[in-house]
Design goal:
Length: 227
C-alpha cells in the first residue's frame, strides 16, 4: 500500500506538501506516502474516514494523527474505551487501540481535502483487503457520506438508507454500517457535530460490536497497527 502510485494527482500533491512543508512543521520529516490503517488486528469496530490531511497523516504517517479531526476522533475513542489515551500526535506517541481499527476511503492526502470518485475506486481494493483480514469486525463506522459510499462499494451493498448521522445499514457480509458526520473543522466548528453526538456513535458501535459481552471493557488487548 505505501508504495502505491495509482493516482497521479494524489502522488503529486502528497509529495509536494512533503517537500514544501508548513512553517510550523519545518523540522518534521514528512511521511508523504499512502497510509495503511491503524489499530487492533482483533478489532470489533472498524472506523473509516475520508482521507489523510496534508499536514496531519501525510506528515506523521498515521491516519487521523496530527490534525484537528484526529483530535476529535481519538478523544472520542478514548472516552468510549477504545484508546489508551485521548491524543494522537505522532507514530511513536504510545497510542494503542483496543477493539477498534481506523482507516480511510482514500489513502493519500488530496488537494483541498477532496478526493475524486476515481481516486476512491483506485483505493477500494485496500479497504476490501483490510475488511477481509479483520474478521472479528462487527460494525463499520462511516465518518461522512464519502466513507459510506466506499464501504457500500467494498461490501457490495446495493440498496441502502440515505446517509445521515446515526443511520445504520445491514451489510451483505452480516456486519453493520453505522454513519456519523465527519469530525472535520467544518462540522465541529459549526456545531453540526458535537462531542456528545460523536460519543453516542461510539457507544452504539460498542453495543453493536460487543453485544451482550462486557462492552465497558473489551477483553482483547490492543496492539499498534503497522505503519
Amino acid at each position: 500500500m505505501v508504495a502505491c502510485r495509482r493516482c497521479p494527482r494524489l502522488v503529486a500533491w502528497r509529495e509536494q506538501v512533503a517537500r514544501e512543508k508548513r512553517a510550523a512543521f519545518r523540522d518534521w520529516d514528512y511521511w508523504g506516502r499512502p497510509l495503511p490503517g491503524f489499530g487492533d488486528p482483533l478489532a470489533r469496530v472498524f472506523v473509516v474516514g475520508l482521507a489523510p490531511a496534508a499536514h496531519g497523516g501525510n506528515r506523521t504517517g498515521r491516519i487521523f494523527t496530527g490534525d484537528r479531526s484526529g483530535d476529535w476522533l481519538y478523544a472520542a475513542l478514548y472516552r468510549a474505551g477504545f484508546a489508551n489515551q485521548p491524543t494522537s500526535v505522532s507514530r511513536d506517541d504510545g497510542l494503542k487501540l483496543t477493539g477498534a481499527y481506523v482507516a480511510a476511503a482514500v489513502r493519500c492526502a488530496p488537494p483541498n481535502n477532496r478526493p475524486t470518485t476515481a481516486e476512491r475506486d483506485n483505493c477500494l481494493p485496500f479497504l476490501v483487503r483490510e475488511l477481509g483480514l479483520l474478521q472479528e469486525v462487527r460494525v463499520v463506522v462511516c465518518l461522512g457520506g464519502f466513507a459510506y459510499d466506499a464501504v457500500a462499494l467494498a461490501t457490495g451493498l446495493k440498496r441502502r438508507p440515505r446517509f445521515g448521522h446515526g443511520v445504520e445499514a445491514a451489510l451483505p457480509d452480516g456486519r453493520t454500517a453505522l454513519c456519523s458526520y465527519h469530525p472535520s473543522q467544518q462540522n465541529t466548528f459549526t456545531g453540526r457535530l458535537t462531542a456528545p453526538m460523536l460519543d453516542a456513535i461510539f457507544a452504539r458501535a460498542r453495543e453493536l460490536g460487543f453485544g451482550t459481552e462486557d462492552a465497558a471493557s473489551p477483553m482483547i488487548e490492543g496492539q499498534h497497527g503497522r505503519d
